[in-house]
Amino acid sequence: MTERDTGATPSWKALLAVPEKQGAASVSRHSGRIGSAPSTRVAGTPPTRMGLQFELREQLPRTNERWRGPTAQPVRTVVPGHGDFRLGVRPVVQNDNGNWVRASLAWNNLTFQVRELNLDPVQHRWFSELIALYRAVRMVYSSREADWIYLDEFSSPLLWHFLGRANELGIAFVGTSKNVTVNLGAEARVSLDVTREAADLRLATTLAIDEVPHAVESAGTIGSHGIYAYNFAPHAAFTLAPTPHPLTGEQLALVGRASAATVPETDVTEFLTEYYPALRRRMRIVSTDASVRFADPAPPVLVLTARFEEKHTLRLGADVEYREGSVITRLPLTPGADEAEARDTAAEAEVRARVAGVLADAELSAIPALQGVDAAEFTEKVLPRLRALAGVRVDVIGTEPAYRELTAAPTLTVTTVETDQRDWFDLGVLVSIEGKSVPFAPLFMALSKGHTRLLLIDNSYLSLRQPVFERLRELIEEARQLGEWKTGLRISRHQASLWADFEDLADETEQAVAWRTAVAGLLDATGIDPTPVPPGVTATLRPYQTHGFDWLAFLWRHRLGGILADDMGLGKTLQALTLIEHATRTDENTDENTDDRRPFLVVAPTSVVSNWVSEAARFTPGLTVRARTETEGGGRASIANAAAGADVIVTSYALFRLDFDAYQAHGWAGLILDEAQFVKNRASQAHLCAKELRTPFKLAITGTPLENNLLDLWSLLSIVAPGLFPSARLFTEDYVRPIERAENPALFAKLRRRIRPVLLRRTKETVAPELPAKQEQVLSIELNPEHRTIYDTFLQRERQKLLGLIEDMNKNRFIIFRSLTLLRLLSLDASLVDSAYAHVPSSKLDALFEQLDDVVAEGHRALVFSQFTSFLKLAAARLDAQGTPYCYLDGSTLRRSEVIDRFKTGLAPVFLISLKAGGFGLNLTEADYVFLLDPWWNPATEAQAVDRTHRIGQTRTVVVYRMVATGTIEEKVMALKQKKAKLFDSVMNDDAAFSESLTAADIRGLFD
């Protein structure tokens, strides 16, 4: 008989140190659904009712003398010296007398008794699934008792689901004799009650099922998830109930034992400070009479262990720490089956929620080992936030590096170095952030692998999620695909567009650095000194032209570029020829290697090349000027032969682009770009060629340096002054977008101040007051009813088509442009869209001829412009019909000069001109009326057309009619044109800014 059975009081340490009860199994999950089975009953015979019979059985040990016979026997009363008690259950049936009998039924033959005993199929299914579940979670089923299974060994908590369903299915809980009761409770709790007896403490194990006390020594455990209690007086009774949490090892050991022990006064402090803190997390401890006051436990602390290892590796671990008195207990984040009841799960959940907020809901236990930049970012940004959380402590193992993120915008410098291979150069990309130079090799490797951050050797790191790095990755990949990746990244000179992309991306380029070095020499300059007009110039320069020459000579002397942007008709070609005459008569444009005089290269539209030759012959006859209008065999040799002994070579933009390698190979005194708006598109080959040509001086000549937006101006400046605004991207961010959004009106003044030293613009109103007035008038024209109906029909159709396309302008640009062009044609004449409408009168043509007939009759001469040659031909047909002489010029005209001379000599009073073909290179002061048949988006282009006649040499008032069809897209065009004109005037037409002489302050403004 054990100490607990005799009723003797065990020592309190022995009570708490008993090992866990054998046979307790872990919880498994299995389905406990009770279904139905096919009925096998005889028709008309009620099924046999089934029951579950309970019996407390003592297990009989085997001995050498006793090896046969039963392995267990029923317990009718609890007497001292009893052995191992277990609660057995078996299936029984109710006979005709109402008694519960075993009959021939056993757990092993359930399947074979359905028909023989006429068992209820639903109840039979319940028993079959119950025994299957019991056996499924046992490693070995070795019982020699076919009748009984023991609930003590039923390790699946699904048992309670089955027991709960039994009453619904009519299954009775019965004993092996009459008057036995079996009760199924809802909850059983095992607690340790601590009370004070004088100076001692009394520890008593208590058991309560549904708040009703039961003797703990007359109880047993069902797996680790339930309790059963029994007694035999006045009659046998069994009470079963599940526990709210899995039973801990201590609870399993205390059930079925003597229920009390005493802690002597000398051990009270030890119990309360050392044993109680650890024990309370394993089971429920109370003081029912409140005689013992337990210290409030310290809240749990989530301890994050950060282990720093080599190669920037960070390993994280997390535990929950409980501290009570001198006892410190570390527990895993996830409570075990025997800890859940004793831990302060609410406090733990609160701390973990705070941690999850910092970790963006990621679980600490799920964070893998962090390496490289991931470890750096976590250390710098996340660990400090975790340290600051209440209830969290960070323990560091190893040395925590001082990581730091570089947040400033990166600065890129793109350089090129000549290689020993023809037509190739090495490409260098230098990146610096906050004064730190970022090695290119690891940067490129990180970009090519798609990394989002880069860790540097000094423990600083930076984000690669910036547009500049993404674009850099794309460009490097494109350059790498050109085939050279041995000693470095190389790019062919023929890939000029790719170099332009790099240049646009960079904050600095080698060209920009060189340009700023040259500008630095101007800091000591105080202004522009007058330069004598060369005697070889046969014309008498007007005062503003003399001032323009002085400015050009100043730029030439300092090897700087500029933009001569005088209004149309103010003699820009004459001023440029005067500069060439001046430069040619000095020794500054001589080739250092050959002592040969280097010529100037003038690039102009094809139609203007001949004009340069004739103007040079007229104003600077001493210059040797040669034109190249057709590509010739021989390449470099051909250009070298043409340039031999020449002062000026004039060629077209097309030939300059096609023969660029040959032009690049020759040395030039300077590059002059006439009608420089032809190179305003920075992505075009012509622009890239102009930018790359090696020459100490570049001059852009254009009356419209800004046509569509401010990037037109930037494109020209990037050629003549590449360091003034190093990047299109930065220029867009610093100027274009803020000005378009009207965010900072002061930016206009700042922009004008920056460009003033390298841009000269004078308007006719300022420098040529002797010019007669220019009268401009908008003629609003109503479409006739049939024309209006056709236009509105097409408008609705095109509007519906475009509604879903405008969101993606880049993808659908062609379709959108086609629809807009269609509507613009319909505004002129419906037959331009469909010949079926040839019978519909054109209101625009009718209005034109109402005016034109009077103009011709009064002896005036008129220029008629349209963007659409098809409409011009309709006008020509009507002129033919009425016998009025006229001249016609568009892009397909072969003998351009003959057509122009015919009009200038007065043989025809009307000149029909396409806007594109006649927007430059014409001097038609013989006309004094201008008709613009259709408004163009660009006010600068229209202005150039008008200024074919309103220019120096005009003696009569010029009348300009803009013809606009009301209620059509032409009105929208006019509104857009006014917006662009306002931008042009705000930036360019400030006479005080661009026409006066430069001062020292202006020159220093280059460095603002």
UniProtKB/TrEMBL annotation:
Gene3D superfamilies per the UniProt record, alphabetical: P-loop containing nucleotide triphosphate hydrolases, Tandem AAA-ATPase domain
Pfam families assigned: Helicase_C, SNF2-rel_dom
Domain Helicase C-terminal positions: 848-999
Keywords: ATP-binding, Helicase, Hydrolase, Nucleotide-binding
Residues of the Helicase ATP-binding domain: 553-723
SMART domains in the cross-refs: DEXDc, HELICc
InterPro entries assigned to the protein according to its UniProt record, in alphabetical order: Helicase_ATP-bd, Helicase_C-like, P-loop_NTPase, SNF2-like_sf, SNF2/RAD54-like_C, SNF2_N
PROSITE patterns from the UniProt entry: HELICASE_ATP_BIND_1, HELICASE_CTER
Chain segments annotated as transmembrane: none
Disordered as annotated region, ranges: 19-47
Superkingdom of origin: Bacteria
MF annotations from Gene Ontology: ATP binding; helicase activity; hydrolase activity
Signal peptide stretch: none
Name this polypeptide is given: Superfamily II DNA or RNA helicase
Source species of the chain: Cryobacterium roopkundense
